[in-house]
Design a protein that fits this description.
Length: 64
């Protein structure tokens, strides 16, 4: 799965604040995500993200 920093992940489950859109800050074996609703940042293992992501919204920056 090709997920890059600055992408928005739409998750199957919602964050406790009620939002299901997460901004990718760092990708690798673990992902650092920021909730688009409350702004909390957290680390999640790649395996958990790949199971729980519904769709990926590409960022406009960096694409030609």
């Amino acid at each position: 799965m090709d997920i890059r920093p600055a992408d928005i992940l739409v998750m199957k489950k919602k964050h406790p604040c009620g939002e299901n859109h997460m901004l990718v800050l760092r990708s690798g074996m673990d992902f650092k995500l920021r909730c688009q609703g409350c702004g909390r940042e957290f680390m999640v293992p790649r395996s958990k993200i790949e199971k729980n992501v519904r769709s990926v919204e590409r960022s406009e920056t960096g694409e030609s």
